[in-house]
Write a structure and sequence with these properties.
CATH topology of one domain: FAD/NAD(P)-binding domain
CATH class of one domain: Alpha Beta
Number of strands: 18
Number of helices: 13
């Protein structure tokens, strides 16, 4: 169904079961869940799909090691489970990532961690070997029943410096464990959207579409033409993340402040010395102020981040110069001999973490878990279900939670689950990618290297991107497509 068909359908029949506002990863997730149950659902996105916070994540698919010291055990367990599901369901985009933690002390953080866990202090502090060992042991325990990746291991100073010669020589130990990373999060979201629409004819999406109150109901404005289409949903789902409060105001939902988002800024740098120094690992390290930072190889470059700063206007978020300096200063602590020049910074980006409203003075202590709250009907506005919080890794379980609450509200039953459902080009993903690429290249007259690029970019959906009219030769192309 194309855009004109969707618009025509809304003109002819404005009554729908569910209107999802927000085409980020969480909105797409709940949209997919409802589409699979046969619900008449429309998703409206004001810009491009997955173009907000869902495009600005750290590219980590992880359990959240540091959340353990906040006592968020349920979140870590759930995140690890969802990480492992993504490794199986989206292997074309999500892959294991060896992660190394440099350790500069043995006992640091023991006392502070205990009093933080008890709620007696909120201030972050450096973490020593014993604290990190305890966290990694718990990580391993949570995944013991479905071991997909190796357990953690510690290295002494000599072995650490031999493995990573450029690391700060003041290091005492290092610990390596496994999490995962996502190469193309925006593409994964788009594939979920396409899967959802393919599963049901009454699952429709519309981008460049603003939802607002008309005084006696709701309307979707096509921002490409200015046309305003009245809609009458039985239920609204507000999945706009850091924009939830602004969206509630726009649609006339009377609710207390729900969100207290923070900004995370990142750099992409092209520095061969740093890329080689990482040895294929992510380095998960603490800056001197106790803030967790990361750097890892990302599509031939190095991703470095991040900051954690409160924001008032999510539309004005960008990586500022002082954040860039902070990130580079943190890198200088862990790899002091490697210098990053201005022209090696090829990209800067920032996104808003959709955190719940909180008065905590330390942003790292704001809970990272997700939950949903109803704003009850008022006047011509139906009930609105707000999806609050959440991290990219748990988008599936968050979407399932919201869908279950929506189904219950509508008096409908769930028929399908998504726990083991492959996403897009992750379907029928080959156990031997090299053999698949060799066969694919021979079948389509491609260089094997090009077949590998297409498999990494589209998974098994690569078949859809190489078909061309019989007898026509493919033109020479760059790596980008």
């Amino acid at each position: 169904m194309n855009r004109s068909h969707t618009l025509a359908g809304l003109r002819d029949r404005p009554d729908i079961a569910v209107l999802v506002i927000g085409g980020g990863i969480n909105g797409i997730s709940v949209f997919r869940e409802l589409a699979l149950q046969g619900v008449d659902v429309v998703l409206a996105e004001k810009g491009d799909y997955c173009s907000g916070a869902s495009a600005a994540l750290s590219r980590m698919v992880h359990g959240g090691l540091r959340y353990l010291e906040n006592g968020e055990f349920k979140l870590v367990r759930e995140s690890l489970l969802e990480r492992d599901r993504l490794l199986r369901n989206a292997p074309h985009y999500v892959a294991p990532l060896p992660t190394t933690v440099p350790i500069f002390d043995i006992f640091s953080g023991l006392a502070n961690g205990a009093v933080r866990f008890l709620g007696l202090t909120r201030r972050p502090s450096r973490r020593g070997a014993l604290v990190i060992k305890a966290g990694l042991a718990m990580y391993d325990l949570f995944t013991a029943a479905r071991r997909l990746m190796p357990t953690h291991r510690f290295r002494g100073r000599a072995e650490t410096l031999k493995t990573w010669p450029a690391i700060n020589p003041a290091i005492r130990n290092s610990a390596t464990y496994y999490d995962a990373w996502v190469s193309r999060p925006e593409r994964l979201g788009l594939e979920m959207l396409l899967d959802a629409m393919a599963s049901a004819t009454n699952a429709r999406v519309l981008n460049y579409a603003q939802v607002s109150s008309t005084g006696d109901g709701l309307a979707i404005t096509d921002t490409l033409t200015g046309e305003k289409l009245p809609v009458r949903p039985q239920l609204v789902i507000n999945a706009t993340g850091g924009w939830i409060d602004l969206t509630n105001k726009a649609i006339g939902a009377t609710a207390q402040t729900m969100m207290g988002g923070t900004k995370g800024s990142h750099l992409i740098v092209d520095n061969g010395e740093l890329f080689d120094a990482l040895g294929g690992h992510m380095v998960y390290y603490e800056n001197e102020d106790g803030r967790i930072c990361i750097l890892f190889p990302y599509l031939g470059k190095v991703l470095i981040g991040s900051t954690d700063i409160r924001v008032d206007d999510p539309d004005q978020v960008r990586c500022e110069e002082d954040e860039q300096r902070y990130i580079l200063q943190s890198l200088a602590f862990v790899f002091p001999s490697i210098k990053i020049t201005e022209n090696q910074i090829v990209f800067r980006f920032a996104g808003v973490r959709p955190l719940p409203a909180s008065e905590d003075s330390f942003t790292s202590r704001i809970p990272r878990d997700h939950f949903c709250e109803f704003v009850e009907p008022a006047g011509h506005l139906p009930a609105t279900l707000c999806m609050i919080g959440g991290k990219w890794t748990t988008f599936r379980s968050f979407g399932a939670l919201a869908a279950d609450m929506a189904l219950k509200r509508l008096g409908l039953a769930r028929g399908k689950g998504t726990q083991d459902m492959a996403i897009g080009g992750g379907r029928d993903f080959p156990a031997d990618p090299d053999a698949w690429c060799a066969s694919f290249a021979a079948e389509h007259g491609l260089p094997v290297e090009r077949a590998h690029t297409l498999l990494q970019r589209y998974g098994t959906s690569a078949r859809d991107f190489v078909s061309h009219p019989a007898g026509e030769q493919m033109l020479p192309q760059s790596d980008y497509s």
